[in-house]
Amino acid sequence: MKNRTRTASIALAAVFSASALIQAGGQAAPEASAATEQGSIVLLGDSVLANPAYAQILTKGFGPVPGLAASPGTESVQAPMNSEYLPNCAHSENTVGATLQSRGHEVYDFTCAGAGILKKQDRIEDLNEQVDELVAQGRVSDNSRVFINIGFNDVASPENLPASKDADYVAQVSEQIDKIRSIAPGAKISMVTYPVIAEGPLGLVCPLRVAPDSKMPMTIPAFPVKLAEDRLEARARQVAEAKGLGVVDARAASAGKNSCGPDAERWVAAGIDVPAENEIYFHLTDVGINGVADLIEQA
User: Fold this and answer.
1) Domain ranges for the chain
2) Proportion of the chain above pLDDT 70, given as a percent
3) Fold of the 2-195+229-253 domain
4) What is the pTM of this model?
5) Which residues pair with 42 in a beta bridge?
């Protein structure tokens, strides 16, 4: 039981992303002319949408990685962050935003690995800083669709998990929505729930997937992760109700498709996951990235 509890705690910690470094500027907001007349897609949130690569997490969290060399004789380098709008936020080249862009959408992806809303983090662009930068850059208009997925990094701190913190979450996310509406009152804003990590009443996860379509992956309960998912879904729905928003229900769409599912169906990577290759543990697989992109496209 002790090992299971420890593993569940590790599983919960694993969904919390690496930090990013830049701080939002204090410049005045220009007119929202940068968003296309056809209607842009704006993404706000954490590593679930940003989908950082392992090398980016290592270099941002611990400095340059030996062996990741820029040229012969170079000991180590920082991995490029690849975020166009928040340059020091870690994005891989395989993200929900990039997928939507490849489908012909105008996408402004302000997501940042490690972001939250309930606790201030000096080296991370949290939701409030993402929105400040979005407004400052004028990347939102009345024709925009804005999607917000936030909160898992907050509940890494146990004091932010109880239902008593729901009101704080609703108030702080609502404040950011008001900022967006102050310059783009016609923008359609939606909350995005998290995809299923811990499945079923016991919160089952599969930390090891070492062969394609493993028939009997190792399954363990990670009930604390399920509790976090329950709380975060409730909070997203409370914000949606309070502010008149839509809900993009990635949690419902991914039911039965967590790290224990067949490779061709599962939305979430395992801890050690050979079939999913470079995907971060308990973050989106290629199937999951396309699944979330489909939901956003249809919203």
Assistant:
1) 2-195+229-253
2) 76
3) Rossmann fold (3.40.50)
4) 0.82
5) 108, 146
